[in-house]
């Protein structure tokens, strides 16, 4: 299975190399997995982004998009509110096959639509459905990193599909694959929370005896700006 995302399309030389690699892989019988991972602010315009995505979209056998990316590609006006506590049901809506049909092409076998670890949707020519997961695992009060879970989810989907390619459109196997992917996404969030630690309690006394090993809690500001642990 050959994996790629939208990032190589940003540069003309990288785009040319990526297209050659994709076509060479297809000649060798590989399945093509396209993780859209759309960095919209890096494009000149949304129209330009759609134009270059279309060049590779029709070459992919398996595609993974987020709910927001699906809405962008289908021209759906998003009703979801960000950075609020409004947990509207629109966040979990499952779009019918008629909504995603404009994105379908003859090479496409499976389309995954993800929304963190909360819910993953799948579409094939014969089936469509959803698998419920866990909404924003409360690892620490500040941990809610859907980008971290996204990497784990995509890697898990690829792993499961690669070992059973003949079941790539089987409904039962797809749902089992998604459950495994959700578990991997949750674990990735746990790992991120463990690396960055827990915030101090509001009622904690100011004078706290320091830990002998240098372990301490961090503030929310520190959590949101701290770099990754290497």
UniProtKB/TrEMBL annotation:
Gene3D superfamilies per record: 3.40.1190.20
Gene Ontology biological-process annotations: chloroplast organization; etioplast organization; plastid transcription
Start and end residues of each Carbohydrate kinase PfkB domain: 2-163
GO cellular component: chloroplast nucleoid
SUPFAM superfamilies: Ribokinase-like (SSF53613)
MF terms (GO), sorted A to Z: kinase activity
Protein name, as recorded: Carbohydrate kinase PfkB domain-containing protein
InterPro entries in the record: PfkB_Carbo_kinase, PfkB_dom, Ribokinase-like
Keyword vocabulary terms for this entry: Kinase, Transferase
Protein family (similarity comment): Belongs to the carbohydrate kinase PfkB family.
Highest taxon, organism lineage: Eukaryota
């Amino acid at each position: 299975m050959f994996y790629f995302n939208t990032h190589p399309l940003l540069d003309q030389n990288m785009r040319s190399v990526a297209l050659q690699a994709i076509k060479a892989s297809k000649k060798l019988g590989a399945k093509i997995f396209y993780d859209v991972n759309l960095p919209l602010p890096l494009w000149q315009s949304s129209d330009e982004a759609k134009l270059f995505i279309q060049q590779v979209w029709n070459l992919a056998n398996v595609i993974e998009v987020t709910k927001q990316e699906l809405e962008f590609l289908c021209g759906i006006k998003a009703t979801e509110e960000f950075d609020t506590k409004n947990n509207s049901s629109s966040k979990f809506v499952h779009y019918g096959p008629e909504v995603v049909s404009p994105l379908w092409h003859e090479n496409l076998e499976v389309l995954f639509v993800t929304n963190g670890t909360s819910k993953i949707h799948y579409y094939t020519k014969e089936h469509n459905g959803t698998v419920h997961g866990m909404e924003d695992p409360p690892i620490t009060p500040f941990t809610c990193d859907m980008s971290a879970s996204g990497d784990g989810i995509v890697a898990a989907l690829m792993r499961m599909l690669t070992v059973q390619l003949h079941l790539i459109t089987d409904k039962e196997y797809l749902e089992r694959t998604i459950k495994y992917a959700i578990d991997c996404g949750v674990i990735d969030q746990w790992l991120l929370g463990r690396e960055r630690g827990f915030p101090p309690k509001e009622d904690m006394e100011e004078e706290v005896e320091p830990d002998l090993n240098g372990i301490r809690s961090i503030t929310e500001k520190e959590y949101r700006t701290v770099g990754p642990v290497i």
